[in-house]
Amino acid sequence: MAVIAVLGAGKIGEALLSGLLHGGRKPGELLFTERYPERAEELTRRYGVRGVDVPEAAKLADVLIVAVKPQDIEPLLDELGPLLRPETLVVSLCAGLPTALYERRLAEGTPVVRVMPNTPMVVGAAMSAISPGRYATPEHLALVEELLACVGSVVRVPESQQDAVTALSGSGPAYFFFLVEAMIDAGILLGLPRNIAEKLIVQSAVGAAKMLAETGEHPVTLREAVTSPAGTTINAIRELENHGVRAALLAAIEAARDRSVELGKAHD
């Protein structure tokens, strides 16, 4: 089995370690790097996986999963550049960073796969989109799909679509959390206790998502099924349209896409 090292054991890195273990990987097949010793010790106690430094990860791993913040990538690549074997598969979970950046900074021929996951990975329900770099083979893509399937769903997209994916599903959970927060506040405004409002909205969100996933119906069809003539729902939707909620959401996602593009250009 391939030795897999996760570089950066934050929330996403830890969630991936946990998912890989639940998916059948043995602790001895996994490594991680973590800058804070106390955090590294905690993760080793929790999962039985060994924490190492970057040079040791580069030496031992067949697959390096880069899960650091985009602003931390330059010093990491400076460290990895002279160490990494060209046959090592590099999997980037960094928003906005193109495969060309890794290919330029690492050994010639290094296979790179770009991934845009999202935070539901921590509950095993991530949506991840993957794209091959110049040297990544179908076998590399299949391996990355297998690894990420342990923590959610996976789709393949051309790398040219990754900035849009980042804006839509990478940032997507935050939009839902924002909407749920507003709806809970509305419930409180209408006189409901916070705990009741929260339970009502969270379960409604779970149920609505399940209907979308399992019925295969278009969102418009499902919305229209709730929207009876002259009823409460159509009055609410009229107000949403009057306040430009649909247009604001489109503009917000475009802004997120533009920022993802900026992150990549910062490393040109």
TrEMBL record:
All residue ranges annotated as the Pyrroline-5-carboxylate reductase catalytic N-terminal domain in the record: 4-96
Species the sequence originates in: Amycolatopsis albispora
Pfam families, per the entry: F420_oxidored, P5CR_dimer
Major subcellular location class: cytoplasm
Main enzyme class: oxidoreductase
NCBIfam families: proC (TIGR00112)
GO biological process, one term: L-proline biosynthetic process
Keyword NADP: yes
HAMAP family: P5C_reductase
Name of the protein in its database record: Pyrroline-5-carboxylate reductase
Annotated function: Catalyzes the reduction of 1-pyrroline-5-carboxylate (PCA) to L-proline.
Catalytic activity: L-proline + NAD(+) = (S)-1-pyrroline-5-carboxylate + NADH + 2 H(+); L-proline + NADP(+) = (S)-1-pyrroline-5-carboxylate + NADPH + 2 H(+)
Domain Pyrroline-5-carboxylate reductase dimerisation as annotated: residue spans: 159-263
GO cellular component term of the entry, any: cytoplasm
Family stated for the protein in its record: Belongs to the pyrroline-5-carboxylate reductase family.
GO function term, MF aspect, one: pyrroline-5-carboxylate reductase activity
Upper classification of the organism: Bacteria, Bacillati, Actinomycetota, Actinomycetes, Pseudonocardiales
Cross-referenced PROSITE patterns: P5CR
